Fold this sequence. Notes:
The protein is an all-beta fold. The protein has no helices and 11 strands. The termini are far apart.
Amino acid sequence: xxxxxxxxxxxxxxxxxxxxxxxxxxxxxxxxxxxxxxxxxxxxxxxxxxxxxxxxxxxxxxxxxxxxxxxxxxxxxxxxxxxxxxxxxxxxxxxxxxxxxxxxxxxxxxxxxxxxxx
Length: 118
């Protein structure tokens, strides 16, 4: 079965850190554009961090720039999101996404809740 499986997340206090992981099953991530998204209650899903193409250059939304870091471990078929200095505004369900660079096949992780208490 082809899928993305997420882990990490949970409850953290303001100023804390969390790391999210997203592992592919059934495909290798090197052929995919990888990104992280989040959806807060009552809001649309937004892209917060992504790699350009299959490379390692990252792009961040202004809301997370300087606090979040996307990284990848190709042999492990895993993409990570390291989150620092979290605030209540970061509370959301976080999703990873993979889009095949040539064919456009798209996979989403199952989502993981991140809650930041004040």
